[in-house]
Amino acid sequence: MLFRSPAPALELFSPVTAQVAAALSMSAEDEALLTQNLRNLGYTDILSLRASGGDKIGMTVASRLKNEELQIAVILQGTSGDEWYSNFDIGYTAEHSGFAKAADYAELKLGDYVFTHAIGRDPRFFLTGYSRGGAVANILSKRLCDRYGLEQVCAYTFASPATTISRRTNRYNTIFNLVRAEDFFTRVPLRNWGYTRYGKTVSLSGHGDMTARYRAITGDDYIGFTRQTAVENFLLTLQRLSPNVHAYYERRRTVGESKLSLYEFMRAVADMLSQNMDEQSADVFVTAITSDYADMISFLSSGADLADILSSTLAVPKCSVADSHCPAAYMAALDVFLEEQGAELAHPRYGGTAEMM
Known about the structure:
disordered C terminus; two-stranded antiparallel sheet; disordered N terminus; 9 strands; 15 helices; alpha/beta
């Protein structure tokens, strides 16, 4: 279908919707809480699909009638278990392979829901997601825009990695991607490899100190990055190690008695994050300290002791990289950003959402 001329993106951005999306996407792991949040917003017929792993993704779909319009909400979950391997599988196509396959799965499940709930109606879609969920929401929203039209889709993603090498991304001006430059995960795959996201990127960085807000939300001190310098320097290291996607998969470097590409090294990282660490993958980290991947080990363990990270029982061990990416950091940074814009804070937290949207 032909696209309409896009309206200015900043005119379409809604602080209220951003706050609702943040509360929904960041409560996605708690089915009972997310269900209550959706009900508070008037949504019914709530379908939760928790089956995940590999190239799938957990998701929740719900619908409501508002002003005689059928509105369908789609909330995509963050990374769980073996999905870490999918996150690091970039592939050679126009979209990140792991995220695109997960979007295929989500699109199929959403299609089933639309078929049974939107008989005789032209639905409007609201999508949101955090981290991997944000990346899949980004791709799925683009597909829905292509099928139903820009005016029928509204998406707010948080902490999304880059998703595509397409050069026709700006037209999707009803998709907003809220990111922090201090968050490494939003900076990969590398821009120098040609990667970006569909829609408008809204930076939550450089709008004031979010550490006090983080402490108020979590009760803990923020140990994440407060400046972009460390991430920028590490991105240069990645570019040196792998100047393009082909090198990411094929350029191997000596690690102990093995030779590993950056992709193979990241699979060892996925072993840790998915809690599939064995002696072989643990050995990769130990021997990598004296390899060309030493700077990666140093960066990934920033703010923590490497031994503590390797022995951690947490799926994502607490360190500067993880803290910079965590939901609480985004909630805090979003508040600071909206205050700078002069927006009124409705404070929809993990514990509930108000009737705002």
